[in-house]
Structures are given as C-alpha cells and as structure tokens.
Write a structure and sequence with these properties.
By secondary structure, this protein is of the alpha+beta class. It has one domain: Alpha-Beta Plaits. The chain has 4 helices and 10 strands. The strands form 3 sheets. Strands 1, 2, 3, 4, 5 and 10 form a 6-stranded antiparallel β-sheet that branches. Helix 3 runs antiparallel to helix 4. The two termini are 27 Å apart.
C-alpha cells in the first residue's frame, strides 16, 4: 500500500478564542503543506474539559488526511502549526492547559508505535467522547489496530460506560455546525 493510501486521523481542539475559526485555520494550514491531502473534516463538537480544570469549553473535530510524511515528521508539522497559531507550551506547568490549538495524531492507519515522542494510536482515544464522536461521524468503520474493532464500537462502549457514571461525572459533548465560508476566505476544504 502506498503511503498516500494510508488513513490518517488528526484530532483538532481549541478552548481559547474563537474555536471554530481556529480549527478551520489549522485545517487550512495542514492542507497547504506539501504532500498533505485533506480528505474530510467532521462537524465541530463543543465539549466540557476532560481531565483538566478550566471554565473554557472546547471546540473539537477530527479530520482525515493522506500524506507522504512519516508519523514523526507529521507530528513535527502539527506542533509547528500549533506554534504558528499561538500555542505556547509551559514546561513548568503540569497537566493539561488551556490552549488556542491542539493537534493530536490519533491514528496513522494501522500503525502501533510507542516512542518517547509519539504513541500510536493515541493512548487516550478510548476514554474521550470528543475524539470518538467526531471520528465515528467520518470513519465509523475504521478498525482500531489495538482493540480490533471499529471506532463506532469504541464509541458505543464509551457511551455505555458514561451512562453508568453519576450525571455530574459524565463527559458533556454537543455537535455543532461550521459557519458558512466567508466570501474570499480561501478555505482550502469545506467541511
């Protein structure tokens, strides 16, 4: 299989500023890179913060791309886009932080990888509605290489586990819709 045929999924998130515009700009940046083809972008999802204390809700989406980049080169490119769009990582601060943009490499086709810089598939994907709901929207039949089941089954399992929790402990997520493109905005790919 040629690398251009690999199914690669990117998680996009923002909880500082205009999240929808941030995600669409990041998507356009990603599509402008040599060797990257944008395939599809999920709807935006609004979600309460998970595993962090913040009053700012997130805007999240998942996009599918094709690329000639290796996983580590793609990761470097995603980090560069985050930096260009204003993300500053504070190495002194522990845990998750509010951020204008977060780009996560969720899946690089069926590759399982564990290194100091990158874990594939993304290790927290099974516990996050804001990853599984948008991914199931665009690739419900994609088979998780570790769980050996489709993403839709992972989402169903997480929803079942969430229902068993007290209401105050459940993840909160709502699907939204992208704003229409402004005339002349140059959006590379319409979601």
């Amino acid at each position: 299989m040629a690398e251009r045929d690999l199914r690669i999924f990117i998680g996009l998130g923002s909880n500082v500023g205009d999240g929808m515009r941030q995600l669409l700009s990041a998507w356009d940046f990603l599509g402008a890179a040599p060797g990257v083809s944008l395939i599809r972008l999920s709807s935006p999802y609004r979600s309460a913060p998970v595993d962090m204390a913040s009053a700012n809700w997130f805007t999240n989406a998942v996009g599918e791309i094709r690329t000639d980049m290796s996983p580590l080169w793609l990761l470097r490119h995603l980090l560069a886009i985050e930096a260009v769009m204003g993300r500053k990582r504070d190495p002194e601060q522990r845990g998750y932080q509010d951020r204008p943009l977060d780009l996560d490499l969720l899946y690089y086709d069926g590759l399982a990888l564990e290194s100091a810089r990158l874990s594939l598939p993304h290790p927290a994907r099974r516990q996050r509605l804001f990853v599984l709901a948008p991914m199931a929207e665009i690739a419900a039949d994609f088979v998780d290489c570790e769980e050996h089941c489709p993403v839709l089954a992972l989402l169903s399992d997480l929803r079942r586990r969430q229902k068993a929790l007290p209401a105050g402990e459940r993840q909160k997520i709502y699907v939204d819709s992208w704003p229409p493109p402004e005339p002349g905005c140059g959006r590379v790919a319409c979601p």
